[in-house]
Amino acid sequence: MQMPEPDRQVIAARDDLIGALRAIVPGEGVIADSDELSAYETDGLTAYKMRPMVVVLPETTGQVADILKLCADRRVKVVPRGAGTGLSGGALPLADGVTLGLGKFNQILEIDYDNRCAVVQPGVTNLAISQAVDQDGYYYAPDPSSQIACSIGGNVAENSGGVHCLKYGVTTNNILGIEMVTMDGEVLRLGGRHLDAEGYDLLGIMTGSEGLLGVITEITVRILTKPETARALLIGFPSVEAGGACVAGVIEAGIIPGGMEMMDKAAIHAAEDFCHAGYPLDVESLLIVELDGPQVEVDGLIETVSEIAKSCGAISVRVSESDEERQRFWLGRKAAFPAVGRISPDYYCMDGTIPRKRLPDILKAMSELSKKYDLRVANVFHAGDGNLHPLILYDANNPGELEKTEEFGAEILKLCVEMGGVLSGEHGIGVEKRDLMGAMFNEIDLNQQQRVKCAFDPEGLLNPGKVFPELHRCAELGKMHVHHGKLPFPDLPRF
Amino acid sequence: MSTQFRPTEDTQVCDVVAWALSDGTPLEIVGHGTKSGIGRTVNLSATLETGDLTGITYYEPSELALTARAGTPLADIEAKLAENQQQLAFEPPDLGPLFGAPAGQATIGGIVGCNLSGPRRVKAGAARDHFLGVNAVSGRGELFKSGGRVVKNVSGYDLCKVLAGSYGTLAVLTDVTLKVLPAPEKTRTVLAFGLDDAAAVRAMGEAARSTLEPSALAHMPKPVATGSDVSYVAQADASVTAIRVEGTEQSVLYRCERLRELLGALASVEELHGHNSATLWRGIGNVGPFVARPDRPVWRLSVPPSAASAIVNEIDGVCEADWYYDWAGGLIWLAVDPGTEDGGASIVRGALAHAGQGGHATLVRGDAELRARVPVFQPQSAPLAALSARLKAQFDPQGVLNPGRMVTEGR
Ligand SMILES: Cc1cc2nc3c(=O)[nH]c(=O)nc-3n(C[C@H](O)[C@H](O)[C@H](O)COP(=O)(O)OP(=O)(O)OC[C@H]3O[C@@H](n4cnc5c(N)ncnc54)[C@H](O)[C@@H]3O)c2cc1C
Asked: Which residues of B touch A485 (CB under 8 A)?
């Protein structure tokens, strides 16, 4: 992976920069010691490592603004970092860059039930928000599997999803406002406790911008009332096709479940060995369908989904009769990544999205690729919204195997795009999928996206080397070739 | 003399913008022009109409997604979805009649371009939340795409979000892909009579926070309720608070009962079924109460619900106005007397500022002279306005797309 050439002058001036940073963030907030820096070398995409030049951990928005201003003045690159659980290398440090960690922004500032929202700092973990409002009967809906660790700021930057996003939306649908700081140190407030933007929806574009447009320093999230009840079905199928047909059948019946997750045989076995959730082992695919809402509604829908499942050839259907049982159904799914981690020295988690009905096609293609590359794959998916997480099993100690794995992964993602889907459903492009962007977008598309970057960060100092395969200077992107002359199509309908 | 272009192909849209660039003639961008009345007055000599870019080009009910050319009438899309018991969950309103245009003329590009959402916005999200993918022509005359046909997507910046609600000032939308959802099997609306504004907003808040999952919550003070198309509402001789539940039959009957209990503790209640319920919410979404008396400036305020009734109270104290609340109090529609100084801008925005809880006020209807004189959209802080201007320049460097529609400095 080619990263921007480190700037020797910046590295040479490191000590001076550290001094200036210490003047802004006193005490332990500036980390310059080589051993301590190594804790920040990587994020959840551990195949890539780089020691940051320096790490700074501010505690106030004012400090963030001062740090960014300082770095902008000295033309030093900055990499924002939340909890470092990202799976696409978005928080991968730069050798000549400052890693700006938001871990000390860990306060829940206000819970406002009247307006059904909470104001939190970006370093608060996703789960902590739900826990803070739990006793009053509320929760924050997007629930990534990493929710005990990942930060809400990282969630906004990655537009993260979770199993409940099918019904309740991803991050972008569940936040009302942010405070952010631009690379030149300007503090902006977007949105608030009201709905919709008063001008351009900058909040919408910040969400999922992977730390390239600004540093998020406060977030107003929507909180929802917990449903009256939730029940789940655990359904086993003799084939992946049958499972896929059931997913389509449920949607076609006009049902949007709270969650609809699928696992293939390899993932079922790994999960069952790991946490003994009681999954059937004689099935090729397993579906967990959760229905939530008023009891009468849930009971009715459970019936309907059972019938759809049977008509699709389900060979085992279990319905949760208690909340403990429902949670046991989820146990294996939620622990699927670590479970797979146990059966292989390493695994590589992919994240493409496809139109639901192509599920059997992509699985078939993957099993062929698995033979071609001689690498095993286990599959878990957010089946309801077509978001796949193939886990490719490999051993990094075998020379060349990581490269082979990455090639395999890239082929899967290109197939997703060919089938009408996209490169990333929720983990982001980062460095990982950066060079695949051309499979989805042409040069004009990518240039227009980079021009958005130019509006926020014209010098390209914030998290460079991520998302875009080629970096262009803003001046170059701004050029226009206007052809003076007549309308090329004189017969164009005019009135 | 004015020139009107009605392209039928994407390449022609590019050509028209290229012409505008070379000729130095900015373009007014419209669908069918039903909402030309929103935004600052732009007097441009050339118009690009997307009304001939029509047709649904992709619709897979089981994928919950639909792609249409930008000029496709909303009515065609809704009819197609209804064949499969599906709908656009953000409940797009038809604002044509508010501006004196016939009903049923809106194009999907216009709806998305103005980010217009109806009563269900409070539960299901806005147009922008259902806007999955786009093809558009920038002010550079280049056709670009963003997003896709799937809901889960973090592949590059989400340009759909800034294009929604950009009023044609960033790019000309040519194709839009929208998330679609199942239409509810059953709908019921519970009415509560005689609550004052503050009590009604509290009651709506309580219902919104309950497990009853209401899909719309509105309050009409007596003068507005009296003009309703639904006789139960019009003849109540009192203010009317309306809360809707939707879903499967059993669920709706149960929740309707619970809602009656909740509201029954505060006021006398009634319920609306099928046709009456649909008529009521259509009127609320389409700003039906203010269609008559087109001389009155109409404001749309988005506020934190807890601040709503105090803001209205302040406005009511100093000018002649009618109003009603949607989105559980988060949306206020307000019509002021035509004689009000600057169309009520200082009063309305002053009240917002005094409440100090954020939010924004848009002058949705006003005569051309008024819209040229007062900021139609809520003025932004200097750094935010500067960033928005930089963004505009990155999409439309020479300001050929609807310049001045949103703010005076060319956006
Ligand atoms: C086991 C496991 C399971 C996971 N499951 C899911 C899942 O179900 N769904 C899902 O969507 N993701 C999942 N992830 C991915 C990851 O947890 C999410 O992307 C998460 O949102 C990242 O948050 P973070 O705080 O760790 O961010 P980091 O990894 O620190 O950063 C991620 C990106 O955000 C930027 N960033 C972080 N904070 C800020 C800020 N305050 N301002 C500006 N930019 C910022 C960084 O520059 C970087 O580009 C999983 C990861 C793991 C390891």
From this structure: 22
Closest CA to A51 of A32, A67, A27: A32
Q: Which chain A residue shows the shortest CA-CA distance from B121?
A: A195
Q: Is the CB of A353 under 6 A from ligand 1?
A: no
Of B154, B331, B377, the CB nearest to A198: B377
Distance of CA A330 to the CA centre of its chain: 20
Alpha carbons A268 and A274: distance in angstroms, whole number: 10
pLDDT digits (tens, 9 = 90+) for A56-115: 999 999 999 999 999 999 999 999 999 999 999 999 999 999 999 999 999 999 999 999
pLDDT tens digits, one per residue of B297-312: 999 999 999 999 999 9
CA dist A288 and A162 (Å) reads 14
Residue A229: enclosing H or E segment and its boundaries? strand A229-237
Tell me, using a 6 A CB cutoff, whether residue A126 lines ligand 1: no
Query: Is any ligand 1 atom within 6 A of the Cβ of residue A337?
Result: yes
How far is the alpha carbon of B265 from chain A, nearest alpha carbon, in Å? 20
The answer as to CATH 3.20.20.105 being correct for domain B186-285 is no
CATH assignment of B1-183+380-411, among 3.40.50.720, 3.40.50.150, 3.30.70.920, 3.30.465.10 = 3.30.465.10
Confidence of residue B384 (pLDDT cuts 50, 70, 90): very high
CATH fold of A229-337 reads Alpha-Beta Plaits (3.30.70)
Residue to substitute from A180, A195, A209, A231, interface B, most B β-carbons within 10 A: A195
- For position B349, what pLDDT does the model report? 98
Rounded to whole angstroms, how far apart are CA atoms B203 and B266? 8
Query: What is the Å distance from ligand 1's center to B210 Cα?
Result: 32
Give the count of Cβ contacts less than 8 A between chain A and B: 298
Confidence (pLDDT) at A471: 87
A117 forms beta bridges with A112, A222
pLDDT in tens, A398-457: 999 999 999 999 999 999 999 999 999 999 999 999 999 999 999 999 999 999 999 999
pLDDT at residue B411 is higher than 80: no
User: Is the pTM for the entire model greater than 0.95?
Assistant: yes
Pairing state between β B3-5 and B27-30 = unpaired
Closest atom of ligand 1 relative to the A80 alpha carbon = 47
Contacts of B45 in chain A (CB under 8 A): none
Whether ligand 1 lies within 6 angstroms of the CB of A158 is answered as: yes
Question: For ligand 1, what atom is nearest to the CA of residue A85?
Answer: 26
The type of residue at A217 is T
End-to-end CA distance of chain A: 54
- ipTM score here? 0.97
Domain B288-373 belongs to what architecture? Answer: 2-Layer Sandwich (3.30)
Tell me whether residues B388 and A446 touch, CB distance under 8 A: no
CA-closest residue to ligand 1 atom 27 = A154
**pLDDT for residue B207:** 98
Cβ separation of B153 and A226 shorter than 8 Å?
no
Q: Do domains A229-337 and A344-432 have the same CATH topology?
A: yes
A5-101: CATH, from 1.20.120.140, 3.50.40.10, 3.40.190.10, 3.30.43.10: 3.30.43.10
10 Å Cβ neighbour count for A490?
A: 7
Question: Of all atoms in ligand 1, which is nearest to the CA of residue A151?
Answer: 25
Cβ A226 vs Cβ A137: under 8 Å? yes
Q: How many CA atoms lie within 13 A of A359 on its CB side?
A: 30
Domain boundaries, chain B: 1-183+380-411, 186-285, 288-373
What is the phi/psi pair of residue B198, to 5°? Answer: -65, -45
Assess whether the region B1-183+380-411 and the region B288-373 belong to the same CATH fold. no
Pick among 3.30.465.10, 3.40.50.1000, 3.90.1150.10, 3.30.470.20: CATH of A108-225:
3.30.465.10
Domain ranges of chain A: 5-101, 108-225, 229-337, 344-432, 436-487
Q: Of all atoms in ligand 1, which is nearest to the CA of residue A102? A: 41
